[in-house]
Amino acid sequence: MNRVELIGRLTRDPELRYSSNNNANCRFTLAVNRTFQSQNGEQGTDFISIVVFNKQAENVKKYIAKGSLVAVTGRIQTGSYEKDGRTIYTTDVVADNVQFLETKAQSASRDNVSISDFETGSSDNAGSDMSDEVFANFGDSIEISDDDIAF
Q1: Domain definitions of the chain by residue range
Q2: Which fold has domain 1-101?
């Protein structure tokens, strides 16, 4: 079984390309925190190369950018190619599914850019107004009583 599930943030904007037969592919690198700390208390991070294809590749390019929080499911694929007489080995995660885990407004407010700038790819560090955003309070705590629990 070759199955990968990752949650992390993009280290740079996704790169969208089209093959000779017009199939979209998009590459990005995902920063994923390790679950353990080193002896001096530092938490490590892995930088994992992701590739996604077709319509989902176009959506990735359109809706997420550097710093966006995403979940990726897919499989590991290895390969190699020749460059300057040397063999270069590659390891990528080929994504079956990329889920966006935060809204544009959350992503824009974290990076201090407006939503319209996010959509056009501009980042002039203008503030964002999340007052009309459906998920503006997403993540706030709520109170649950024992009567609310089904078991």
Answers
A1: 1-101, 103-151
A2: OB fold (Dihydrolipoamide Acetyltransferase, E2P) (2.40.50)
- For 46, half-sphere exposure in the C-beta direction (CA atoms, 13 angstrom radius) is 12
- In this structure, are residues 42 and 20 in contact, taking their beta carbons and an 8 Å threshold? no
Rg (CA), the chain: 19
Note the pLDDT tens digit of each residue in 74-99. 999 999 999 999 999 999 999 999 99
Contact, 32 vs 6, CB < 8 A? yes
Give the residue from 117, 98, 88 showing the smallest Cα distance to 52. 98
Residue 91 β-bridge partners: 78
Helices (H), the chain: 54-63, 104-111, 115-120
Rounded to whole angstroms, the Cα distance separating 128 from 28 reads 25
pLDDT, tens digit (0-9, with 9 covering 90-100), for 31-82: 999 888 878 888 889 999 999 999 999 999 999 999 999 999 999 999 999 9
Q: Can you tell me the distance from the alpha carbon of 100 to that of 97, in angstroms, rounded to the nearest whole number?
A: 10
